[in-house]
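W.,

You were right to be curious about this one. When I first looked at the sequence I had no strong expectations either way, so I just let the prediction run and decided to look at it fresh. Below is the sequence, 286 residues in total, followed by the output.
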Amino acid sequence: MTPPETIGSTLGAVAVALAGAGVDDARRRARRLVAAALDVSAAEVFAERDRAISQGHAERVTELLRRMLAHEPLSRILGVREFWGLEFELSADTLDPRPETETIVEAINVRLPNRSASHRFLDLGTGSGCLLLALLSEFPAATGLGVDRVFGAAAVARRNADRLGLAARARFAVGDWAEALIGHFDAVVANPPYIASADIAGLPREVRDFDPRMALDGGADGLNAYRRVSVDLTRLLKPSGLFACEIGQGQDSEVAALIAAHGLVIEEIVPDLAGILRCVVGRRPS
């Protein structure tokens, strides 16, 4: 009789399959996959390596592995992604948040040291709501508005606010960037589409095939969204208000010039943890 599969043997087989398919960091990804399939924590995968798994769980592992080998991100398979220590629901209408986007949250945090202030935040192109809700989690007296062109994305962001207990301080609207918005904000944040249209075909399949094209395509030179947003910044920001946006690699000087041309002073271009210039920070003069 064939002995039953254990968590440890399953983990090893999944890691080998992922590594054979050229998946980076195969062991870590295998651990996440097995934990998700068994509905346990990654720590339990290690602690209970000798535990036998059921046929149903084995089939679940096989199905998740099939989808990962087809380059579907595990976050898409599970429908959730961790960002800033919070768990966010995803959908086909939302970008899958990446760790480098946390650079925006950190840039605002270090420049607004009073955590108890009743700041007002605006998140343009909110998607899952991750930027706005991460900021609200750091500033318990703050309120904010997230705007997205896609109704489905705004609906996901609203559900995330509910799940995280932040719905009372967050509003979401469907709109075309900052058009029709009024009121002054202490900080405006954005992670706009910044991939040049011609470059999208060359993106990794995990991005190209599963992130919404609208959240990726920045037009012929990747800068269309920055042109749209920059013209409204002085109208939207309070005096001394902050703007922080994510940029693609090599776009720092062009995006900074667009923002400065519309009245903001560039404070810093912040690198992400990989050392890539990732976030342009501007301030409206006081």
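Here's what jumped out at me. The beta strands are 80-83, 86-89, 120-124, 143-148, 170-174, 185-190, 237-246, 265-271, 277-283. And, maybe more interesting for your project: The first strand starts at residue 80 and ends at 83.

Coffee later to discuss?

I.
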